[in-house]
TrEMBL record:
It comes from Nitrincola iocasae. This is Aspartate aminotransferase family protein. Its cofactor is pyridoxal 5'-phosphate. PANTHER family: AMINOTRANSFERASE, AMINOTRANSFERASE CLASS-III. PROSITE patterns: AA_TRANSFER_CLASS_3 (PS00600). Transmembrane segments: none annotated.
Length: 437
């Protein structure tokens, strides 16, 4: 269906959505799709989750919107407390916004204001990874390490200092440990090359999403970055817009290593596709410092409204009541085994990586060469289109820089069952077989 007025997808003819239930979505022609990527890695509880929609309907009947400078809402307080509890009280303060990019910008501004208020206004530079993705707004784009997105706005964005992300697939050193040490010392050198006391924060995605095809950093690397942040006196910000809220089998990916950031950025899974709700969590002393100097000069109209917070709270409660983390831990291993089996059968699957229900598949010309398909071959969109035609939605990403291959993400709703994974894998297998022809 081609729209007259909308311009989201260049050249794409998309079906019209009709309705959805659980992991299934239907278009207006009656075709059924399995949502193998939770939309944009967002619909963590699938579609039409009864507890979430009931809570939202009840809130709508009471009050949908109240402005945060005019009223406090009990549900915002409760959601804040629930999030702090999920960090096991390692982070203490919460600020709500409406999207991932807004949350990233909020983290950047909070970090800057913290140092500004402390009398260190010269701390202005961010350090982030290449490749990475942190959002589409100009501030977040400055952190994002993905050249095609940065280029048209070079004069508008303030680029962060980019350091390489460890690459666990194409590393050149003898082993992963040596590679991680090499990346860390390169990072240390890049940070040391900045003017003294000029760094505000190091920003990273603990598990990349579309940017790296679900590349998960490791404990040694993240501990090393924490040490560097302490040494250079800057903050550590983790962007868990995609990896947060249960997707990796922990509430937050940093909990796999016990390395807590100073500011944590959340979005997608928080509203689980039911309402745009996002936010940042920060250490108490950091926020206190800002609040004691007049407060955080930031906010968006829809931030923390009752309907948004009701949605966020209902999502967390449903996840707790239904043991969703256990499901992700157990079936994440199963999903990975299934994808590894496909890799064993298809030579163009170079790498399967990730954790829990955040799995990435990298496409290459052959496993031996690890060479990416030529960009103009559009492997990522071919494979996604074939899968869609067969009734399976997966999340595509074009190869980043001609060095890495195209990839797609398999990121089902977190309450997906084993039988449903089997159903997804059958369709994926069919799609891969057709792609290989
Ligand atoms: N950070 C990360 C890690 C993301 O994956 C995304 C969205 N894909 C964003 C930030 C931006 O979020 P939004 O699209 O909600 O602005």
């Amino acid at each position: 269906m081609t729209s007259n007025a909308l311009f989201y997808q260049a050249g794409a003819e998309l079906p019209l959505i009709s309705h959805a239930q659980g992991i299934y979505m239907w278009d207006t022609l009656g075709k059924r799709y399995i949502d193998g990527c939770s939309g944009a890695i967002t619909c963590s509880l699938g579609h039409q989750h009864p507890a979430v929609t009931a809570a939202m309907k009840a809130q709508l009947d009471q009050v949908a919107f109240s402005y945060r400078t005019q009223f406090e809402s009990q549900v915002a307080i409760d959601l804040g407390d629930a999030l702090v509890a999920l960090t096991e009280a390692q982070l203490h303060k919460v600020f709500f916004v409406g999207s991932g990019s807004e949350a990233v910008e909020s983290a950047m501004k909070l970090a800057r204001q913290y140092f500004y208020d402390r009398g260190e206004p010269q701390r202005q530079r961010f350090v982030s990874l290449r490749p990475s993705y942190h959002g589409s707004t100009l501030g977040a784009l400055g952190l994002t390490g993905y050249e095609p997105l940065e280029r048209p706005y070079e004069d508008l964005i303030t680029p962060s200092v980019k350091v390489p992300s460890p690459d666990f697939y194409r590393f050149k050193e003898a082993d992963i440990e040596t590679h991680v040490e090499a990346v860390l010392s390169q990072t240390e050198a890049a940070m040391a090359a900045q003017p003294e006391d000029s760094i505000v924060a190091f920003v990273l995605e603990p598990v990349g999403g579309a940017s790296t095809g679900a590349r998960m950093l490791n404990k040694r690397y993240v501990e090393g970055i924490r040490t560097l942040c302490d040494r250079f006196g800057c903050l550590l910000i983790m962007d868990e817009v995609l990896s947060g809220l249960g997707r990796t089998g922990e509430w937050f990916a940093w909990q796999h290593w016990g390395v807590c950031p100073d500011i944590l950025v959340l979005a997608k899974g928080m509203g689980a596709g039911y309402y745009p709700v996002a936010g940042i969590l920060a250490k108490g002393d950091l926020v206190d410092q800002v609040q004691n100097q007049g407060g955080f000069m930031h906010g968006h109209t829809y931030a923390g409204n009752p309907l948004a917070c009701t949605t966020g709270l209902a999502v967390i409660r449903a996840m707790q009541n239904e043991g969703i983390l256990d499901n992700v831990r157990e079936l994440g291993i199963y999903l990975r085994q299934q994808l590894d089996q496909l890799k064993a059968r298809y030579d163009f699957i170079g790498d399967v990586r990730g954790i829990g229900f955040l799995q990435g598949v990298e496409l290459v010309q052959s496993q031996g060469s690890k060479a990416p398909f030529p960009a103009e071959f559009n492997a990522f969109s071919k494979i996604t289109a074939i899968a869609r035609e067969k009734g399976l939605l997966i999340y595509p990403r074009r190869c980043l820089n001609g060095v890495e291959g195209d990839h797609f993400l398999v990121t089902p709703p977190l309450n997906t069952t084993r039988a449903e994974i089997d159903e997804m894998m059958t369709l994926l297998d069919q799609a891969l077989a057709e792609f290989s022809r």
